[in-house]
Specification:
Arc Repressor Mutant, subunit A, 3 strands, mainly alpha, Four Helix Bundle (Hemerythrin (Met), subunit A), 4% strand
Length: 228
């Protein structure tokens, strides 16, 4: 197998499965570990400077997250990025985020509007500076804010199950030229509808936004090297 890991050793004080889990999770999300790449316990243990036990436990947690999968008699592999998986994740995401903006529109007086406006200003300022990475981070924070502001723990928990997959997709999407500015403009329109307490329009704009993101993502050249 081609040597690719280069993950760096974990210090003695961090010999816990959650630390191993976090290193592997981050490497998968940031695409340092490629889709369908085999994860060999012995090699991972050697690179991270741990025994095979925390590696095995971390891989079990990652399998529960849907980030790795096991093939009998062959081993553990990083989950693929497929068009089917992307569609399914976005369908669930749209359902959660449509409901969130509807709730926020109906309960706008309970929302902390300054928080959302601050995030939108961060994105705007980053765009002016040409700081695409910072703007992309702000745009991600905007979605997180809307969901958290519902104060519905079930919604937040359900969304958290999507985060690992969404963050991996976002890593690829951040490479798409011009997409980040489009994200910001769509976010401004969504929040304008929330401020007007127009739940129907907010839902429609959120759906249009997410479907636009999905279409641009699926049609991008950047995705092709990761998706089959």
């Amino acid at each position: 197998m081609q040597e690719k890991y280069r993950l760096g050793k974990i210090s003695d004080v961090q010999l816990l499965k959650d630390k191993v889990y976090e290193v592997l999770r981050k490497s998968i999300i940031e695409l340092s570990l490629s889709p369908n790449e085999q994860l060999v316990e012995n090699r991972l243990a050697e690179e991270l400077g741990v025994s095979k036990s925390p590696i095995r436990e971390a891989l079990m947690l990652l399998e529960q997250d849907g980030l790795v999968y096991n093939v009998p008699f062959k081993g553990c592999f990083v989950t693929e990025i497929s068009r089917k998986n992307i569609h399914e994740i976005f369908q669930l995401r749209e359902a959660l985020e449509r409901f969130s903006v509807k709730v926020l529109s109906e309960n706008y007086s309970e929302l902390e509007p300054q928080g959302a406006k601050k995030i939108l200003r961060e994105a705007e300022e980053a765009l002016r500076r040409g700081d695409v990475k910072r703007c992309f981070i702000a745009n991600t924070k905007f979605h997180d804010f809307l969901l958290a502001a519902t104060k519905n723990e079930r919604i937040v928990q359900a969304y958290s199950t999507l985060r690992n997959h969404l963050d991996r997709y976002r890593k690829i999407a951040s490479l798409i030229l011009g997409r980040v500015a489009k994200l910001h403009k769509e976010h401004v329109l969504i929040f304008a509808a929330i401020e007007k307490r127009d739940g129907t329009q907010a839902e429609e704009r959120m759906s249009a936004h997410l479907r636009s993101v999905l279409e641009d993502f699926l049609n991008s050249q950047e995705l092709q090297s990761f998706c089959r």
